[in-house]
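Q: I have 732 residues here and want to know how they pack in 3D. Can you give me a structure?
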Amino acid sequence: MEEKKHNKELFTKMLVLYLLLVVVGGGAMLMCTINTQVVNGDMWREKARAREVVERIETARRGTIFSSDGKVLATTVPVCDLCLDLGRWPKKNRKGGTVKDSTGRVVMESCITNDSAFKANVGKVCAILHNQFPAKSFEYYYNRIMREYVKPNPSRCLYVERKVPYSQWTAIKRLPGWERCVVTKTAEGSVKSFVRAHIYGNMGENVVGQHYVTKREEGYTGLEGYYDSVLRGQDGKYLCRRLTLGTWIPVEDGSVPDEDSTLIRHRIDGKSIVATIDTRYQDIAESALRRSMNQYGGQSGCAILMEMSTGYVLACSSLTRDTSGRLREMLWSNVACSDSYEPGSTFKTVAMLAMLGDDKISLDTSMRVQSGGRKRYSASSGEIDAGHGYTADTSNLAGVLAMSSNVGMCELAWQFYRNRRGDMKKAIESIFPFGKMCPDLDVLEPRTGIVPLVSDRDFLNLSYGYSATVTPLQVITFYNAVANGGKMVKPLFCREIIDGSRSSAISPVVLNSHICSEETAKQMCEMLIGVVENGTGSNVRNSVYKIGGKTGTTLSIGDRSIKNSSFVGFFPADNPRYTCMVLVERTSIAGRHAAAPVFKKIADCVMAFDEELGGTRLQDSGRVMRPVLVKGQRSQLEMAHHLLGIPFACDEASPSGRWTLYENDRSIYGRYQVPVGVVPDCKGMTIRDALALLRAAGLKVRFSGQGKVINQSPAPRTKVKKGSSVTLELKP
């Protein structure tokens, strides 16, 4: 009985304890529920909604940069990270054991890839990647993939290469056995992204601009940077609800409780711009400048081509030699507008034009030009060269400019401005654009101007191009104003902004409507033409069209063998339409030889491409011009004539063949019969044609130089055996 009574009391206590726990626990749960639902309900609802509904940004597509001739310079293209799912595991038999092949190796299987198809196409994948990224070898990609592939537990997301062009990534994904192993989505999101691509590589890269990232900031240079607000557009902002893990769908306006619908912002893609750069002229300018700097040396250089009436910069090449000696365009250095230098003789035109505004000076003003005159100046401690090719003791203004006489310019300044040097400085500053010229390129422009003319030496130096620092873009802007009748226009690098079907042109900007009178500008143009016809610029003279311009060479203070060489001018001089400036810094060659030929090459090509000037370039004293190649493949020469708009005069009576030869006595192309058993005559051919001709004859070829063949060894028609070597010498 006592035991039953004890059990009953124990049961009662347990029941009371249980009920107490239920009441207390239930009360606690109720309090928590009230706290969660009522007291902190808003907070928890906000957190829940933040996990299910978030604001997501849809990046706007950046606008395209076009060239003035309709080509795409920079655009946004899709790229993908190439990731492979190589998940494989040992094959199991019915009893759960691993299956082995005849050699004892464990057989691996996968539901993602077909082993035979995967291995059959892995070589194609590696070839595609190597061609796209030449810095990494075929073997690198093959070893990277196969090393992971043969592991017992290979990676389910192997990063093979990042930012693979979308077309190449798609080609890999479509290969048999690779359809499912190419990953399209990782834990970080989609493998697809968008990058900025320069369609023409590094051509005009300083002008177009490029993306940069530093510790302090991120942005763009060049046109990309200056017109960033136009090109960038407006990112879209959307409310999205989680549908499944990693999948989000847009939320319609007002469908989310207590959500302000104004947060939803639609994406607006960026506008496009049309640069003033013409890809044809840009390619010519870069090629000619690079060739000159490779031949004559130079630390940096630029070539600028400007349309005279509008100021549109049609070409702007800027090359700098890096630490390895390779010429390339630097990110932060655009030589045309970021390098300041003492201009030398190209500044004589500025000083002379400023003096011509004085009634005391005229074109007939005579002055001493022989070097003995320097003893008259208190600045005689410095060397003042007489000029180039002078035999007379005195000359007028045209002669001083044509022969680039330093003594003549000093004599002119000393005679008329010795006691009013401030007037001379003020006159120069009023006609030369010392201010900033190129905000369109978003570069840091150096401070330019004239040094204080304290000493006689500084005063005289200014008259022939020292004691002042300028940029190449400022120099070409001044010469462009002279050729434009005295009207100075601002150099522009963008001509149009495109917004869908609408476009707005960027009009020319006039900096100074009259730096001088039209008559004075015309007189100065005539003197600059004389520089080319009878002076230091005679090596760019031709009989097809006239050029007006000025050579310039400045010596380094520390080492007089180091020079800055330049040539600036306009063409065709009879009716100027273009202005061009070429500068090669820190070279050992004068401007006449280092810079002037680059100017001539650019001018010749512009005259050939400009349809309105076509009649000028085709006629030379009544006869039709022809290419300088006199021998080569008929199809190639016909194409060259067609592109230049020149009739291809050929001998219809002679049978046509692969090779053709220009016959000077008849001024037509005839058939070139390739001799058998002897060395063919390759003089006048391009290296491509010469290689094809000599290799077809069973001969080995070695060559040096560039351009066309001017000499060969053994001599033409020499009997040689097959397999013998022929050495060719090339020259532009």
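Q: Anything worth noting?
A: The first strand starts at residue 53 and ends at 58. DSSP finds 22 helices and 36 strands in the chain.
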